[in-house]
Write a structure and sequence with these properties.
The structure holds two protein chains of two kinds.
Chain A (H helix, E strand, L loop, with lengths): L6 H10 L1 H23 L14 H10 L5 E3 L5 H7 L3 H8 L33 H15 L5 E6 L6 H12 L4 E7 L2 E2 L2 E2 H4 L16 E5 L3 H16 L5 E6 L19 H6 L3 H11 L5 H23 L17
Helix pairs in contact in A: 1-2, 1-3, 2-3, 2-4, 2-11, 2-12, 3-4, 3-9, 5-12, 6-7
Chain B lengths: L2 E3 H15 L3 E5 L15 H5 L4 E3 L4 H13 L3 E8 L7 H8 L15 E6 L15 H4 L5 E4 L3 H13 L4 E6 L6 E3 L14 E4 L4 E5 L2 H12 L4 E5 L2 E3 L3 H11 L2 E8 L4 H12 L9 E5 L8 H7 L3 H14 L6 H6 L3
Parallel strand pairs in B: 2-3, 2-4, 4-5, 5-7, 6-7, 10-11, 10-13, 13-14
Antiparallel strand pairs in B: 1-8, 6-12, 9-11
Helix pairs in contact in B: 1-6, 3-4, 7-11
Chain lengths: 330, 338
């Protein structure tokens, strides 16, 4: 077993290879844990928003989308970025503010970008990427291609106007866009039931006459299948879909938040549905991987993350001149 | 050279760019079937069809955000914000998203977006539909900003904005939509962003004006006992330092004429730059002629007084030239306070 090195191969691997889906989820978790360690060691400044527990959604979205589809994603986007094909060096370079980062250390944890795999700069404003994805779908519609766009956002974003305006516009224009809500049960520090009057975000699609689906977001194959079906409808002229992925955020909102507001037993209940544990078990049951191979994946991933950290720590910070680049287009 | 009204010039500029480039699309409230509430998209739906010319819901955050996404993926959207105040509900999409994609993609994503908005007082639209609001845009790195001062500049700046690969805002003083003049159309009519224009020559002062105040300043100069070079700045981001500096170095005096309130107006930045870089060449203090620091009032007499008039410009410049000091603005006497 070896891990593909370049972004397009990393992306391609998720489409047909379920072992690669497993491996990528392990990589996302290992990277997020490493990011937490690096923060705890004081090696980075600023903040970070971990997607621990939400690995299956990221992998499912990336497995279903093409590289010519456009993806907008939130600041909790390390998982989606890795799944779409960005490398651990691309991410850690940004998070640590080094030249090795995907945009040379200018963006940081919340601003990742890679046009080659369809990722627009990730959005640090809640909900902002949702209308932008509708616009990327508009490009496909005007140009007559069968590309589509995907907006990945949290449950908290469904209370901001951008979500509602984007769904309305996408519906009235029949745009080829898939709205993927990662319902991780918390908007920043607040549990969803304190901020949102509906149990299922998916019901909000009714207001805009859109099809919607509630999906178990802890299973990458389920997530991929739901997104793939929505994309197929979009490409065929069937318009937008809202897909709600039920998932769970293991970490707090950001690095300073230890999530003391979490009800007792909630984490444990969700951990029973842990995407990595369960998917690994299933692949073993199905004979796709042996128990030893599961362990080998973890070892291989840990080594690759350690190597990425080493590469990034030996990469220089961006030169001062870099801040003046790319303010305006040439 | 056709003679046209400013709204016709805007429609013509957009149509010319749409003919040249199939990626140019037009979005906005009532821009298609109704051809725009100010008739600034006349004939576009008929010629280019509903795929490229679209009426939107009343939903600026949604459709400006969609325009950002469309621009980032290859189209050249021209978005109408009917009154510039409506930009307030969508400013995130312009200033924080669209303006930053190029920077946050290492230069690999461009956002060739044009946002048009009508601005300014004078037509009795009241407090919430009469501001100029350059300040919402000019201080945001990643955006360009141009302001039309009549049909010819509206045509030329609009075409330049649509062709530009950076997100660009073009403000259109609403009370000039019906103004007519001869317009150079075609490629020769394009006005590069960042260039100013000499409107009239003169020696006693340099008057820098923008948008609606260009005509007022030129009118004041024509009737006055003093003479000034009147410059139409045309673009605020970037602005034409060379032309302004060259003129001030010659005349020794700088006057800005602004429709916006005094505090935080665009003229403050021009004055600060000139005062710093040309301190030794100045023969007197820079003078800013502006509106007072109040919301735009509705009553006709009040609204007319709010905007700098040609008489007021004459009075202020004459005062500066006679005394060597900045004369108090008209509202000091009205307010009865220092």
């Amino acid at each position: 077993m070896s891990m593909p090195a370049n972004r397009l191969e990393r992306r391609q691997a998720l489409q047909d290879d379920r072992r690669a889906r497993y491996e990528r989820m392990v990589e996302i978790r290992a990277l997020e844990n490493k990011v937490q360690d690096l923060f705890d060691e004081g090696l980075v400044h600023g903040t970070t928003h971990l997607c621990l527990g939400q690995e299956a959604v990221a992998v499912g979205v990336a497995a279903a989308a093409r590289v010519s589809d456009t993806v907008t994603c939130t600041y909790r986007g390390h998982g989606v970025a890795l799944a779409l094909g960005l490398t651990p060096v691309d991410l850690l370079g940004e998070i640590l503010g080094r030249e090795a980062g995907s945009i040379g250390g200018i963006g940081g944890s919340m601003h990742l970008s890679e046009p080659d795999v369809g990722l627009l700069p990730t959005f640090a404003i809640v909900g902002a990427g949702i209308p932008v994805a509708a616009g990327a779908a508009l490009t496909a519609q005007v140009r007559g291609t069968d590309d589509a766009a995907l907006a990945v956002f949290g449950d908290g974003a469904t209370n901001i106007g951008a979500f509602h305006e984007a769904l309305n516009l996408a519906s009235v224009w029949n745009l080829p866009v898939v709205f993927v809500c990662e319902n991780n049960q918390y908007g920043e520090y607040s549990r969803i039931d304190l901020t949102t009057p509906v149990d299922d975000i998916a019901v909000r699609a009714q207001a805009y006459d859109l099809p919607s689906e509630v999906v178990d977001g802890q299973d990458p194959d389920n997530a991929a299948a739901a997104v793939a079906a929505a994309l197929e409808r979009a490409r065929a002229g069937g318009g937008p879909t809202l897909v709600e992925m039920k998932t769970y955020r293991y970490a707090g909102h950001s690095r300073a938040d230890t999530a003391p507001y979490r009800p007792e037993g909630e984490f444990e209940r969700w951990y029973e549905k842990d995407p990595i544990v369960n998917y690994g078990r299933r692949l073993v049951d199905e004979g796709l991987l042996s128990g030893d191979e599961l362990d080998a994946v973890k070892t291989l991933v840990d080594e690759s993350i350690a190597a990425a950290v080493e590469t990034v720590l030996s990469s220089p910070p961006p030169p001062l001149a870099a801040m003046f680049d790319n303010v305006l287009a040439p | 050279m056709p003679r046209m009204r400013m709204n016709q010039a805007i429609s013509a500029a957009i149509a010319d760019e749409m003919r040249a480039d199939p990626d140019v699309i037009v979005l906005g409230e009532d821009v298609a079937v109704a051809e725009g509430p100010f008739k600034t998209s006349a004939g576009l739906l008929d010629e280019f069809g509903p795929l490229r010319v679209r009426d939107t819901p009343i939903s600026e955050m949604g459709f400006l955000g969609a325009a950002v996404g469309a621009a980032a993926t290859g189209l050249r959207p021209v978005v109408e914000i009917m009154f510039v105040e409506f930009l307030g509900v969508a400013l995130d999409q312009l200033s924080t998203e669209g303006a930053k994609f190029h920077y946050l993609s290492g230069g690999r994503v461009t956002v060739p977006l044009t946002v048009r908005a009508s601005v300014g007082a004078g037509l009795g639209f009241g407090t919430q539909h009469s501001q100029t609001l350059e300040g919402w845009v000019m201080g945001t790195p990643g955006l360009k900003l141009a302001v039309a001062s009549g049909p010819a500049t509206a045509y030329g700046l609009m075409r330049a904005a649509i062709r530009d690969d950076s997100p660009t805002v073009v403000l259109e003083p609403r009370r000039l939509y019906a103004q007519r003049e001869n317009v150079t159309t075609g490629p020769e009519g394009v006005i590069p962003l960042g260039t100013a224009r000499q409107v009239v020559g003169g020696d006693d002062a340099t008057i820098v004006a923008l948008g609606s105040t260009v005509g007022t300043a030129a009118q004041a100069e024509a009737a006055a006992s003093w003479s000034a070079e009147v410059i139409d700045l045309q673009s605020l981001q970037p602005w034409d330092r060379d032309m302004v500096y060259e003129s001030v170095a010659r005349t020794g005096r700088l006057v800005t004429v602004e429709e916006n309130p005094l505090f935080g107006g665009w003229g403050a930045d021009i004055v600060a730059a000139v005062a710093a870089d040309l301190f030794g060449e100045l023969e007197g203090p820079p003078l800013r002629i502006t509106a007072p620091d109040v919301p735009v009032p509705f009553g006709k007499e009040l609204e007319e007084r709010y905007m700098p008039s040609s008489d007021y410009i004459d009075e202020q410049v004459a005062g500066l030239l006679q005394t060597g000091r900045v004369p108090p603005p008209w509202w000091e006497a009205e307010k009865g306070s220092p």
